[in-house]
Amino acid sequence: MAKQNVAEQFVDILTRAGVKRLYGVVGDSLNPVVDAVRRNSAIDWIHVRHEETAAFAAGAEAQITGKLAACAGSCGPGNLHLINGLYDAHRSMAPVLALASHIPSSEIGLGYFQETHPDQLFRECSHYSELISSPKQMPRLLQTAIQNAVGRSGVSVVSLPGDIAAEPAPEKAAETALVTSRPTVRPGDAEIDRLVEMIDEADRITLFCGSGTAGAHAEVMEFAGKVKSPVGHALRGKEWIQYDNPFDVGMSGLLGYGAAYEATHECDLLILLGTDFPYNAFLPDDVKIAQVDVRPEHLGRRSKLDLAVWGDVRETLRCLTPRVKEKKNRRFLERMLKKHADALEGVVKAYTRKVDKHVPIHPEYVASVLDEVASDDAVFTVDTGMCNVWAARYISPNGRRRVIGSFSHGSMANALPMAIGAQFTDRRRQVVSMSGDGGFSMLMGDFLTLVQYDLPVKVVLFNNSSLGMVELEMLVAGLPSYGTTNKNPDFAAVARACGAHGVRVEKPKDLAGALKDAFKHKGPALVDVVTDPNALSIPPKIKAEMVTGFALSASKMVLDGGVGRMVQMARSNLRNVPRL
Predict the structure, then answer these.
(1) d(CA 272, CA 527)
(2) What broad class of enzyme is this (predicted)?
(3) pTM (two decimals)
């Protein structure tokens, strides 16, 4: 058997850790690794057109599968392009291993062509970022990087000079066991005891849930039922907690709707479950707050806590629910459910008035129709900006659908690259990129990646020829919009020129048929929908301090927006609540 080089050993360790794809753009310093991938049947090289796409795709794959994903960039400019997607993956707690190949090891520190210092550059967007300076160092360093990415749910970066990658691997390198999954964390008895006391003493309890409730839907519902608690959620908690939820009061925050804001402010005890909700202006400062989170660094960094509980949401609730006293009084829950239903009834009118005849098309209508015709197990990837609003208010979760986006990092151009990573995990599953024209055109080159690999991603383009969220931010600041207009091509024609299915929709009556045709198409497809640039949205509660850094306006041009099928869900929940 021929002796391995370092690159081959590197790739073997990745495959043992479960990595199936390496997203990237080839380059000379990466050549030994790419060649090792070529000769290893357990892993594929996914050639994208921009390294930023590679990082976004790897992050999306990790979020869909819950397993380690990987990307790579060549020395200097190549791996620098990874950084934005890696920031997003890290802040989304997606386990990603990034290979940053490096200039020849003998030239580091001497101002060589394309020299950067990737081991330093990526430290802020990773748990671990180190340079391999010797073949003997590689196996242990890569193992440590993998364990940091998986165990701490985030990014690890390994910098590897091309010359070292080509050197012979050390003989008898230890094949150590690799961590490929995370343990569960149970809180301490003292914290459980105190939380039980707080719950039993409170008359009105509200739960506010984030992405940390993934896998804990049944436990949250059982607990809410026992303590008669309204259940609100952050955007990243929506897909995990809103479906089959008779206690749902909607979403709080800048994209919020319903009665979540009131429920969190009118309770005696607010329990934050697995959420790192960033907008503390939407959180109360005059009620008792307990927070449960598996990441201790998240505890108390958004609000002053009366109790911090370090543990998994599911394990915590399994310990907690049997011990708390069942509450009999449902008045607070019923009042919040009614407020929620009434709030949704109010905003839905803005969307229903002649919406099927309005030209340019209301984007709310596009999102609503999309929600109706998409598969029950579809993956939606969502561009930052107004697409976030429409996804938050119109895409109905059901326990099988996924909705992912740059919800913590807030990057433009994330939807298409994320759709690539999501689609590679399962070519038979429907993947829909909800793209804005600004975000799509920023990384439009990787539409070619869909064509090259015949990935059946469906791009639904909300094309209002502007950077709508930025225009709203300018409006808030009292500034005229400037530099926000996009002179766009016919994106459907561009898609067809690339070899994909493309159709342009300018009238509401043509929308449903165009979407259905695109979804039936076996390959990549783009539906270019011309939407109304004046269709904007505001949250249900606004204070002056909430305005900073976000698009809020009380102008007459701003629509409240609709909420799709959520109004029916809310009314159904209200009807099913027994009256005292």
Answers:
(1) 39
(2) oxidoreductase
(3) 0.91
